[in-house]
Every structure is written in C-alpha cells, then in structure tokens.
Design brief:
- The structure holds 2 protein chains of 2 kinds.
- By secondary structure, chain A is α+β, with helices and mostly antiparallel strands.
- Chain A folds into 2 domains: 217 residues, Glutamine Phosphoribosylpyrophosphate, subunit 1, domain 1 (4-Layer Sandwich), CATH 3.60.20; 70 residues, Alpha-Beta Plaits (2-Layer Sandwich).
- Chain A contains 7 helices and 16 strands.
- Chain A has a 7-stranded antiparallel beta sheet with strand order 7-2-8-1-14-13-15, with helices on one face. A 5-stranded antiparallel beta sheet of chain A has the order 9-10-11-12-16, covered by helices on one side. Chain A has a 4-stranded antiparallel beta sheet with strand order 4-5-3-6, with helices on one face.
- The longest helix of chain A is centred in the last third of the chain and has 14 residues.
- Chain B is α/β, with parallel strands linked by helices.
- Chain B folds into 2 domains: 98 residues; 97 residues, no CATH class.
- The mean pLDDT of chain B is 96.
- The chains are: A alpha+beta, B alpha/beta.
- The interface between A and B is medium-sized, with 15 and 22 residues.
C-alpha cells in the first residue's frame, strides 16, 4: 500500500499557499504509507541559462557551504545555494552532465534528488508529518505538486527508495502499486545507456517514460507506450513543468479519486485526503477510469 | 420517530458505530444523521436494527458493510466495498461507488445512482443491486444468485464464470466473461426487473429496454460425461 496526492492550482492567489493546502492531503495518507514521504513541487523557474539541483545529504549537519565553495572552483561558475538540514538546492549555469559527474566524483554520498528549471524534490524516511516538518512543507509555494506516502513492499526503506522519482529535467513520478516486470524494463533501458540509482520498481517506470519523451514522444504517446510496457499494479501520478498526469492500470487495482474545482485540481488515493480542501463541496469528484490518461495543465 | 445527529469531526467513528451496534429494540425506528464523513472507512458497518442512517457526504471503504435490516443512505460517493456482504436492508448511494460495490452480498438492496467501479456485485450471493449509471469491468464475476441491474453500460468480462445470478443491462456491454450469455427475457425475469426498478426509484424506465444475461451453465455444472470420474 502507498498513498499518492497531487495538487494543481489554477487560481494564482492560491499558489502562495500550496504547502498549506498540501499538508492535510499528505498527512491524510499516513495510514497508507507510514514509512517514508516525499513530494515534488514546481516553483518559479530559475533565471534563464540556469538549472537547479536538489541534493540530499546523509547527515542533517552536512556542511553545504564547503560543497558550494568547492563547486564554485569548477570552471569558475557563480553557483548559489540554499539549504535546510540534509537538503539543499544548488543553482548553477553549468550543464547537467557536468554537475552530475562532479557530484559523483567529489561527493558520492550526496544524492541528486532532481534537476530542472522549476522542480524541487524533498523525500526522506519517517512518518509523513515528520518529513513535512523536517522540510517545512507548510510554507512551500508553487503551481503544482505530486506527493507520496510509502509503505514499502518490494525494496528497502531508505531515503533513495522513497518517492517521488525523477529523471531528466522537470519530470517526476509517484507510484502506488507494484510492477512485475521492472527488471526487464531496467535491462532494456540499460542497453540504451540509462543508469539506475536504486533497485526500486518505480524507478524503472520513471526512467522508461522519461526515456520515451527524450526520444521524441509527447507525454500522451509515452504513457500509451507505458500501458504496453509496464506490467503490474499501478496508479501513477506524474509532474512536468506545466502538467500533472494520472494513469491507472487496466484492472484499477490501486485507487485514485480526483476533485476538479474552478480553483484547483486535486488527486489522492482516497477522498480522505481531499476532504479538507477549500470549497470541496462544489468540486466535481470522480474516480478515474482504468487505462485512461488524465492530463491537467497549469 | 427520534432523530439523532453525529458529527464525525467531533465524535470518533468507533463511538458512532458502537452506538449503532446497541440494543436493536432501543434503536428501532430511529433516524440517525452522520455529518462530515470525509471519506472515513467503515462508517455504519455491521448494523443489525431497523434504523435509518444518513451519511451526509463522501464515505470511505466498506460503508454499510454487512448491513442487516437498516436503511443507509450515502448522499455523496462511496469507496471500495460499499454494502459488502449485506444480509438485508437497503443501502442507497446517491453519488458514485468505487470498486467491489455489494461484493458477496446475500440479501437486501443496494442502489447506486451514479456509476459503480470495477467488480460490482462480485460473488453476489442473493442480494439485488441497481446501478443508475454504468459499471466497470469484471462486474458480477462468479455471481451466484441475486440480480444486478445496470441502467448504463457494462465494462469488460461481464458475468465471468457466472452461476445463477441475473444481470440486466440497458446500455451496451463491452464484453461478456466466460460462460455468460444473453438470455431471452422471460416473464419471471421481467417481473423481477420491473419490481426492482420501482424499489430503486427508477419506475419510469421501461423494462423492455433491458437485455438479460445469465449463465450458459457449461462451466460450473456437473456434467454427465464426467460421471465415471467419481
């Protein structure tokens, strides 16, 4: 079991409150996923020519400043950073591959959570309320987000195995369910030169869809191929820089409920997590059909 | 008739359910209103008294499960397994119902005004289900007895491995499951359908606009050719 939540705010004035609106949604899914939690939020974009990298350190007292100073010596770039315990956001004008390989060489213990123009990712082990507190979720701002509470079934409970998973830039995915063919997908993608960071089944789905889009598919086409390639139980909720996407497996083994309102679109595994959204009584609440694609644009 | 109100934001669910499980003679005839259900699971499960319960909003999993004698109305939607294993009484969902609505129900009537999800009436054992909208795939899977009335459409594999339940469909059927076939609408079935439509509040719907589906009886029945095997 796991819990997924998603929120896309159509009303501009709500975007300063996305964290506050998200919090009861995520905590509402605690029973479905008490061992880890995480979210990906799409914020204001970084200045042109830059990318932001979300980093995770194994220690809450990690010295981010020395990492930044060292990083700045790389091609004399003018990177900036903000940090919060074991989480930091590095903004740099260097190419993604340069940053990735530098991190891998210099700081192999630092986990790259995400890369992109607008995406921030926070995830860690612990109950959803603890993780939310750790990263001050209540004060997040942004246009849309996906969140996840995890009850691990097929791989270990570690920060890296928590959701969301990311690949490429401004792309993230959370998953409720379990895939039965992740190793086949992994082998296929490894032939394409794609590397994996965990043995988690969700990572295979995440990298498969990102690979399809990098190969030129649009999100719809990629998801359509996903229906053929992914075997198992899944409700997948995905975020791009301007969209949320939702699919359920053909047997609808894993739940999802959607609330469409003039001001927002909210998605959760169960209505419990939608019950406290503003004016929910006037939202159109429905259960998404199996093997259908649902896409919402900001 | 006495009216009682509970607010699920103020009173724990267990307290409300324990009240509803009280002495049937005290509860009999009472009308109970539950506000702010907010998708909580197990609301009004295991009732065993002729009470009227209104769940005012969206209910979570297993609402009114194992119901006996009582009338439970959900004004919003219901989660997985609404009225599962109902024995008698009436459960009315005014919105949509999620998967496995009325699963294994043995008696009583489940009315869903909106759509029902997948596996509606799975292993139905004698209850009646009337769905105002459409049902998802694998509905009435291995249904043994009772009636499933669908005013809208049915998904894939309707009535797979069906025993002796009747399935009435007004719309289209995406596909029939193994051993499920269309049957001529006989007088007895037509009468049952007509009565169920009236009971469910759909009395204006023409009985003749439905098709009847039942078991082809090739899967489950004892076959004389196999007599020597025993």
């Amino acid at each position: 079991m796991c819990g997924i939540v998603g929120l896309l705010l159509k009303k501009e004035s709500l975007r300063n409150r996305i964290g506050e609106l998200l919090l009861p949604m995520l905590i509402g899914m605690t029973e479905r996923g008490p061992d880890s939690a995480g979210l990906a939020v799409f914020t204001e974009t970084v200045p042109e020519g830059n990318l932001k990298f979300n980093l995770y350190a194994p220690s809450m007292s990690f010295k981010w400043e020395s990492l930044l100073n060292e990083f700045r010596t790389l091609a004399n770039n003018k990177a900036s950073m903000s940090s919060q315990g074991n989480h930091a956001v590095l903004i740099s004008n260097l190419p993604i591959d340069t940053v990735k390989s530098w991190l891998k060489q210099q700081y192999p213990n630092i986990h790259l959570l995400s890369a992109g123009h607008a995406i921030d990712v926070y995830k860690d082990t612990g109950r959803p309320a603890e993780v939310a507190e750790r990263y001050d979720f209540i004060n997040l701002k942004g246009t849309h987000l996906v969140g996840h509470t995890r009850m691990a079934t097929e791989s270990a409970v570690t920060p890296a195995h928590a959701h969301p998973f990311t690949a490429g830039t401004d792309w993230c995915l959370v998953h409720n369910g379990s895939l039965s063919n992740p190793n086949n997908i992994r082998r296929k993608l490894e032939h394409e030169g794609i590397t994996f960071e965990t043995d988690n089944d969700t990572e295979a789905a995440c990298r498969f869809l990102e690979w399809r889009m990098r190969e030129g598919d649009d999100l719809e086409t990629a998801l359509d191929k996903g229906f053929d390639a992914l075997d198992g139980f899944y409700t997948l909720l995905m975020g791009t820089s301007d969209q949320l996407a939702l699919v359920r497996d053909p047997f609808a083994c894993k739940p999802a409920v959607v609330a469409e309102h003039d001001d927002y679109v909210a998605i959760a595994s169960e209505f419990r997590s939608l019950a406290h959204l503003p004016d929910i009584k006037n939202a159109h609440v429905f259960e998404p059909s199996p093997k259908e694609m649902y896409l919402w644009k900001i | 008739m006495e009216n009682l109100s509970f607010d699920l934001e103020a009173t724990p669910l267990r307290e409300i359910n324990q009240f509803l499980h009280g002495d049937a003679s005290n509860l009999s005839g009472k009308t109970i209103h539950i506000s702010n259900p907010n998708g909580a699971h197990n609301i009004a499960v295991g009732l065993n008294a002729p009470v009227h319960v209104t769940i005012d909003g969206h209910a979570g999993y297993y609402a009114a499960g194992m119901n006996q004698h009582s009338t439970v109305t959900v004004t919003g939607s219901a989660g997985t397994g609404v009225a599962e294993n109902m024995m008698s009484g009436l459960v009315h969902v005014k919105g949509f119902a999620s998967n496995a609505a009325g699963a294994t129900a043995q008696g009583g009537l489940l009315v869903i005004d909106g759509d029902a999800g997948l596996r509606c009436g799975i292993s139905l054992k004698g209850a009646d289900i009337v769905v105002g909208g459409s049902v998802g795939s694998f509905s009435a899977f291995m249904a043994q007895s009772g009636n499933l009335v669908i005013l809208g459409d049915a998904g894939e594999a309707l009535g797979d491995s069906l025993y002796e339940a009747r399935i009435f469909v007004r719309g289209t059927v995406k596909s029939l499951g193994a051993d499920c076939e269309q049957k001529p609408m006989d007088e007895a079935s037509s009468k049952i359908l007509g009565e169920l439509l009236v009971k469910a509040g759909f009395q204006d719907i023409d009985v003749d606009s439905f098709k009847l589906y039942g078991s082809a009886r090739t899967l489950y029945n004892f076959h004389v050719d196999n007599a020597g095997a025993y």
